[in-house]
Design goal:
The complex is a heterodimer. By secondary structure, chain A is mostly helical. Chain A has one domain: Cytochrome c-like domain (Cytochrome Bc1 Complex, Chain D, domain 2). Chain A contains six helices and four strands. In chain A, strands 1-2 form a two-stranded antiparallel ribbon. A two-stranded antiparallel sheet of chain A has the order 3-4. In chain A, helix 2 packs antiparallel against helix 6 and helix 3 crosses helix 6. Chain B has a two-stranded antiparallel ribbon. Chains A and B meet through helix 5 of A and loops of B.
């Protein structure tokens, strides 16, 4: 009886795991107790927010490009940046460590400060639509 | 005669054994004797963490292209926050692991040909932040007209080693492996 129960629970859990995308998992990482509500519109506004540095405009699209299904190009080095959209780039958002690293670097570079947990969640929510 | 040769080779072996400074770190006498690699080009980067982290943004320059003091300056936490205009911050664990790997094979310790040439072109306490500021590297590129580098859309800067050096990832930088985009082979 116990074995059957374990089996059923295992199946249930695995189906939950299958249903969530890496980006859902990352949003959960930033919201472990579920107290935050992430908003795609707020994320979009932040994504498009512009800042002038040394007379040059900086925003997310400068390197990632406007079409998230296409690769971006680093504004300075010209290095190709793989598409942001999980629908075409299955590697995207799969590693929390990478997500954390790039949020830290890119928020500082783009906005001149680190993003708050709320902002990171909003950005993820926005990106989860693609 | 044979006896004399034996003695001579024994003495040579002993001499080399004592004077281990001729070997690169971790290189045994037989590695040194039996491979010519260690007297060629630049040691390829085998540190996976370095290759993965750094090549996210740029060509993973081999450790043997700069001396230890340069790598220490470059991998300083503050310096990484403004890494040639970009934020390249690393968590401390990753940063020190990468720095250790770079120091282990830095130009001042390497036996590889180009590392030695790099070092002999630098003054005693010179530790440039940019590989293209090394006198040896400058000298090797000074005959190439600007229009093929900065004026070339597919190259842009001398910093992009692998734009022209087709075997740069293997640490090979000889003239034979150079193909300048839109121009072709480079011959002196």
């Amino acid at each position: 009886m116990n074995k059957i129960l374990i089996f059923v629970v295992a199946i249930l859990f695995s189906s939950i795991a299958l249903a969530t995308t890496p980006i859902d998992q990352r949003m959960a990482d930033y919201n472990p107790d579920g107290s935050l509500i992430f908003d795609a519109k707020r994320g979009e506004d932040l994504w498009n927010q512009k800042r002038m540095v040394d007379g040059k405009q900086r925003d997310c699209n400068a390197c990632h490009g406007k079409d998230f299904t296409q690769p971006g190009e680093h504004v300075k080095s010209g290095k190709v940046i793989k598409p942001m959209a999980y629908s075409v780039n299955k590697e995207r958002f799969t590693k929390l460590k990478k997500v954390k690293k790039w949020f830290k670097r890119n928020c500082k570079w783009t906005y001149g400060r680190e993003c708050t947990t709320q902002e990171k969640g909003d950005l993820l929510k926005y990106l989860s639509q693609f | 005669m044979i006896k004399r040769l034996t003695i001579l080779s024994m003495v040579t072996l002993l001499g080399l054994g004592i004077n281990t400074s001729v070997f690169a770190d971790g290189e045994s006498f037989f590695d040194w004797l039996l491979t010519t690699d260690s007297r060629n080009e630049i040691k390829p980067m085998q540190n996976e963490l370095y290759n993965e982290e750094c090549s996210d943004c740029h060509f993973p320059y081999q450790a043997g292209l700069l001396p230890e003091a340069s790598w220490k300056k470059l991998l300083d936490p503050k310096a990484l926050e403004d890494h040639f205009g970009d934020n390249a911050e690393l968590d401390d664990e990753t940063r020190s692991a990468i720095l250790d790997a770079l120091i282990a094979d830095s130009a001042d310790k390497s036996r590889y040909k180009r590392s030695k040439k790099i070092m002999s072109s630098l003054g005693e306490n010179e530790a440039p932040m940019r590989i293209i500021d090394i006198p040896y590297i400058k000298r090797k590129h000074h005959e190439i007209p600007d229009k093929l580098i900065t004026g070339n859309d597919k190259v842009k800067s001398l910093s992009f080693c692998d734009a022209c050096h087709q075997k740069a990832d293997e640490g090979i930088y000889d003239d034979d492996s150079v193909v300048i985009p839109g121009h072709g082979n480079w011959t002196w």
